[in-house]
Write a structure and sequence with these properties.
9 helices, mainly alpha, single chain, 3 strands, about 5% strand
Length: about 260
């Protein structure tokens, strides 16, 4: 159920190794002994959802999918048919673990350097406190949001055949979210989808939430790892002239989306 008129590209959207690390953490897997069949199945399920949401899936995600399928095929070979290490590389689980551990170290170093840069910028900062605005940046990844979305979609009515050729009402859902936040500063994640029963409406709500985040109308926070997700209204400032929808430029054509 991909849409032609809306495409998501967000800063919190990361690469295939980030997705694999998220899946390892979510399922509490041993990174040194990853069950290849399980991680491949989960990865491909996320890839399908990304296509449903019309996420801008980079080629590297597809390359990783092919790599995982190759790992899976090798892991299913009878033991006597598996080449010895050194003949055709390490076993699939060890090879994947090495990639993820190296990437994890790289991410840790990048995060440390970024934190040091922020500390140095604060030393020379002479204006209003910086931390208030930085607290509103997402503390969870798009993969975590997608994982929660999967749970909701599992219980939804599939209306893909009913709405072929119709537009996703993303602008309408953006207005709904802002209305929910008009009388209070925060809503729970579940409240966002409380009156949605069909897959089309749930996806539209999710995309509307992402668009409002990009337009800096709302921000999303999570209590702790895999904890409650809450959506907050961002207080308007004097120079805040971001449109609600339609005129967002490269932020995405949020007014509506035309499903295939």
């Amino acid at each position: 159920m991909a849409e032609k008129g809306y495409e998501v590209t967000l800063e919190l959207f990361e690469g295939p190794l980030d997705l694999l690390l998220f899946l390892v953490k979510k399922d509490d897997l041993d990174i040194h002994n990853i069950p290849i069949a399980h991680i491949t199945r989960e990865y491909l399920a996320f890839l399908d959802l990304m296509k449903d949401l019309n996420l801008d899936v980079a080629g590297e995600f597809l390359v990783m999918a092919a790599t995982l399928m190759a790992y899976k095929s090798r892991s299913l070979l009878p033991h006597q048919d598996v080449p010895a290490e050194g003949e055709d590389g390490p076993d699939p689980a060890a090879e994947l673990a090495q990639k993820l551990l190296e990437y994890q170290k790289f991410k840790g170093a990048s995060k440390f350097l970024s934190g040091r840069a922020d500390e140095m910028s604060n030393v020379f900062f002479r204006g209003a406190p910086f931390f208030e605005e930085s607290d509103k940046s997402p503390n969870l990844s798009l993969f975590e949001l997608m994982d929660r979305l999967r749970v909701i979609l599992d219980g939804a009515e599939d209306d893909s055949r009913e709405v072929t050729g119709e537009e996703f009402p993303i602008e309408e859902k953006m207005e709904k979210i802002l209305f929910l936040l008009s009388g209070k500063p925060m809503i729970e994640w579940e409240e966002l989808f409380a009156d949605e029963r069909k897959r089309r409406g749930i996806i539209a709500c999710f995309l509307a939430m992402l668009e409002l985040t990009k337009l800096q109308k709302i921000f999303i926070r999570q209590d702790a790892n895999f904890g409650k997700i809450r959506i907050f209204k961002k207080e308007a400032s004097a120079d805040d002239s971001s449109p609600v929808a339609g005129d967002a430029g490269n932020a995405g054509d949020a007014g509506s989306a035309d499903p295939q």
